[in-house]
Amino acid sequence: MTAALSGPAFSVRDIPFSTYGSWFDLSPVVAEKTYAEDLHLVSHQNGMHAVLRLTPLDPATADRTPTRVEATPGLLRWHADSGHIDLAYESPDTVRLRGSGVGIGVHAAAHSLTPFSGTYFFHDSAADAHVFTSYETGRRYRVTVLSGTLAGTTGSQALGAGDRGLTVTGGAEGTWELAIEELDTSRPPYTSLADFDEVVESARDSFAAFLDAVAPWRSPATPAAELAAYVVWSATVRPTGLVTRPAVLMSKHWMDKVWSWDHCFNSLALAPGCPELALDQFALPFDHQDESGALPDSVTHSEVLYNFVKPPIHGWAHAHLRRRLPRPPGGEQLAQTYDRLKRWTDFWLTARRAPGAPLPHYQHGNDSGWDNATTFDPERVVVTADLSAFLILQMRELAYLAAELGEAGEALRWTDAAAETQTALLDQLWTGDRFVTRSVATGDTWSSDCLLDLMPVVLGEHLPAEIGSALADRVKAHLTPHGLATELPTSPHYLADGYWRGPIWAPATVLVEDGLRRAGHHRLADDISARFRALCETHGFAENFDALTGTGLRDRAYTWTASSYLLLAEAHAHRGGR
């Protein structure tokens, strides 16, 4: 019996094939911007590491045979002239493979084995299976042949350089089946609990349930909703190592971390249908908040980085999150959030304010999330308008939370602090027609052609109307047929693939669209939403996009892009599609 492909099809060159909870995927992407000829099992424990190479083989010659790969959420298939190979996840740490008319080679991706790197290969007689042990991931990968013929092995127990792996071909009926498990040290021998078609059906049902939860509003008017949901679902990993909760990685390509502002967009997209998972996304970086109140730059399986921070959009995000949850957070949860947001805000008001300065500053473009934006070209240690705007919203959210917790004095204190910060922002950085950036060292100011300078539009209804309108007019100049360019295309510093010096990014789009809409600029907000949604529907969910052509750039399976599409598509659907 052949399992049928169903669901949204995608290219594994763009989107890894994986499942909810798994720390590995199947993909030809084996490192940053590096594509292999064959699909690999790629683990994200201890970093991104290609562990096993999966090679379709001609059963007569044992040579590599050309194939065409198709993928849908529950099933990956290699098509060859002589037959096919199917692969499906039985569980987050186990995949099942079945072949007909085509053999398979399962080999270590690393050619060399040293005392500190590479993959060791041997036959485990206790489990009657072959095992690859990886120095890079610190895990074992056990291959159990369930049916067919073990045609040969190479490099068993070998040290040094050499090929290591096994070849499986069809038995009397020309078919074979095997299981590959990712495990720690040991577990009982693999036993099959379901036949292959049942495994496929279970995987499909799992994704379908997730899809119905996060995008029940989908329709032909939101044609990328299913694939967006798959990108988020398949990039979710179970708690392991330093990842304290179920976590949506930014990607299961090389951007396989949780950065401390990216997570907010995933949290918001998940909130109505998967509230517990949404709350986990919001909370995860706060689990690693340091003594100063700072959040880490990023968190992944085996490292937490503190050398930079990320912008304090968390008050903005939490205000939306609590409204999107099906049930409002309880008192204990609000108290914890209040404490964490308070410490995060105090970090900016103490560690990031120069003596006597009313406004906080960044120490590098990385702190803003807009790493190489032209705003930071003259200097990096600077006071920018976007930072103060985010903190104003965060202080307003703290005032709300304090009032909910019965702390009237604290609520008034945060309300006053927000007002004072906004007054200082307008006095010091607003020139009458634009916001400028100020050097912490010299006090010099400058402006740029970067969309970052316009991000105070996120203040929405809190901005004076004339300032909101001036910002809206400047935002229009950044709008290309595909969306908001992060650098004006007419700027001498514009670069098509310049990271934050031109390409379209999802977070900037969502933040600007929300601020404009709250300020009453609905037509412009609608236009920005429509262009970004069309961009994703045409070019997928890349890390960023060429602002003039729409082409996806960098990592091609980025979850905050998928979540931003889901947020904008849902809002569009609820507005009746107008």
Provide an overview of this structure.
There is one protein chain. The chain is of the alpha+beta class and 578 residues long. The protein has 13 helices and 28 strands. The strands form eight sheets. An eight-stranded antiparallel β-sheet has the order 4-5-6-7-16-12-11-10, with helices on one face. Helix 3 packs antiparallel against helix 4 (275-283) and helix 11 packs parallel to helix 13 (559-574). The protein is elongated, with a radius of gyration of 26 Å.
Essential attributes:
single chain, 578 residues, alpha+beta, 8-stranded antiparallel sheet, 6-stranded antiparallel sheet, 32% helix
Low-confidence stretches: none
User: The biggest beta sheet, please?
Assistant: 8 strands, antiparallel
Number of helices: 13
Number of strands: 28
Widest sheet, order of strands = 4-5-6-7-16-12-11-10
Strand content: 15-25%
Helical content stands at: 25-40%
Mean pLDDT level:
96
The N- and C-terminal alpha carbons lie at a distance of 46 Å
What Rg do the Cα atoms give? 26 Å
- Global structural class: alpha+beta
SSE topology:
Layout: E1 24-31, E2 34-43, E3 49-57, E4 68-72, E5 75-80, E6 83-91, E7 94-100, E8 103-108, E9 112-113, E10 119-124, E11 129-134, E12 140-147, E13 149-154, E14 160-161, E15 165-169, E16 175-183, H1 196-214, H2 225-234, E17 236-237, E18 247-248, E19 258-259, H3 262-270, H4 275-283, E20 298-300, E21 303-305, H5 314-324, H6 331-350, H7 365-368, E22 382-383, H8 385-404, H9 408-429, E23 437-439, E24 445-446, H10 465-477, E25 479-480, E26 483-484, H11 506-518, H12 522-539, E27 544-545, E28 552-553, H13 559-574
Antiparallel strand pairs: 1-2, 2-3, 3-8, 4-5, 5-6, 6-7, 7-16, 8-15, 9-14, 10-11, 11-12, 12-16, 13-15, 17-18, 19-20, 20-21, 22-23, 23-24, 25-26, 27-28
Helix pairs in contact: 1-2, 2-13, 3-4, 3-5, 3-13, 5-8, 6-8, 8-9, 11-12, 11-13, 12-13
